Amino acid sequence: MNNARTFGPIGSLYLALFFAYLFGPLAVMVITAFNSSSFPRISPWDCLTADWFSKLLADEKLLAGLGNSFVIGIGVVIVAIPIGLAAAIVLSQVGNQLRSVIYAIFIAPILMPGVVIGLSTLIFWDRLGTAIGAGYNSLFYDGMFLTVVGQVTFISAYSMLVFLSRLQRFDPTLTEAALDMGATPTQAFTKILLPFMMPAIASSGVLAFLASMENYNTTVFTIVADSTFTTVLAQKVRYGLDPSISAVSVIIVGITLAAAIVFESYKRREDRKARASALSLPMDRPFIRVVSHPGTVAAIVLALIAGAIAWAGTYDSSVCERRILDEKRALQEQLMEEQRQSAPADETAPSTGEPTVTPGKPGNSIFSPGNLTGGETPAKPASPGGVFAPGNLKGGEAPAKPASPFGGVFAPDNLKGGN
């Protein structure tokens, strides 16, 4: 009894921490989608706004990537579900030794890194296209096709595991009885096995679509020049995020919750019908049947979504945002005024040994000629002569022209007879 009492609070605390860890990031992202701050944050809170949803609709690149992701996800579901179902049926009908070999082959892509799958897919189809001489505008180099093929290699293994878990509860004697009664293998499959596998097909389809939407490691190599939702988000992370990404998350979470609520209501209604028919009990009262009907639940969910969209379109947060902006400007001006008031107190310290500049006198600066000698310009020293003075080699006197002792051929008046 004491152990039960002790385990109760501990178990509750563990569950609370588990759900906080699991759903905490989603809650934070949903809240940031309604904060007017330009950066996704909860604190400090600025204003309640729905502008990020309108800005999301104006982001053409993100919407284009989201559209490509939807197309790729649908293509992956169409291809991966038949492959996974075929693999599960084969594994349920072969011997133990062959089953282990086939199972290892199908499960290997899950254990392989997504980078390796993406690069190998890109290289394989490039070599194949080069071998047959296909151009770069052909299917072998199309990013959408390569991404579908690359994702199917491991997502089909997920589908196979879902189908295997469902086939373990299937009674194979039902198929054998249908064949003994003259049904063809195709009729036995479509009339008996396929209806039994429909819940698993729906579950694996949702799983395959979500796995395709969130995949990045394989997609970043196979998408080539195109883009998907995850690759656009990765580019936005490099250049800075804004709450429009949170708006995308709110939309995805809302769609997921709406689908889960409608599916759960349908499942519970079917369980109540099966229990009532098995125990020969009447169904619930008419009011309960109408309220719990999946169509009624879907209508309520759609009405809530429409109300949220109408509120987002009519709510105006410009007044609050203007007030926040005015408060920030006032705070900035106050800080600047405090800096101006504290600036003169820092600059009144006396200067020692530094040259003073007298205004009105040109050239009076630290580069003035007499700056280092107390502000007076030194007098120009008298030239004592120096080695370059004229007459330095003759004692300072210029040499006199020597008198010619005799005429000669070079005498000035030689040609005139010496006169």
From TrEMBL:
Coiled coil: none annotated. One of its GO terms (biological process) is transmembrane transport. Pfam families: BPD_transp_1. One of its GO terms (cellular component) is plasma membrane. This is Inner membrane ABC transporter permease protein YdcV. Keywords: Cell membrane, Membrane, Transmembrane, Transmembrane helix, Transport. It is found in: Cell membrane. The chain crosses the membrane at residues 12-34, 70-91, 103-125, 145-167, 188-211, 245-266, 287-313. Residues 66-263 form the ABC transmembrane type-1 domain. Belongs to the binding-protein-dependent transport system permease family. CysTW subfamily. Residues 333-419 are annotated as: Disordered. It is a multi-pass membrane protein. Its main location: membrane.
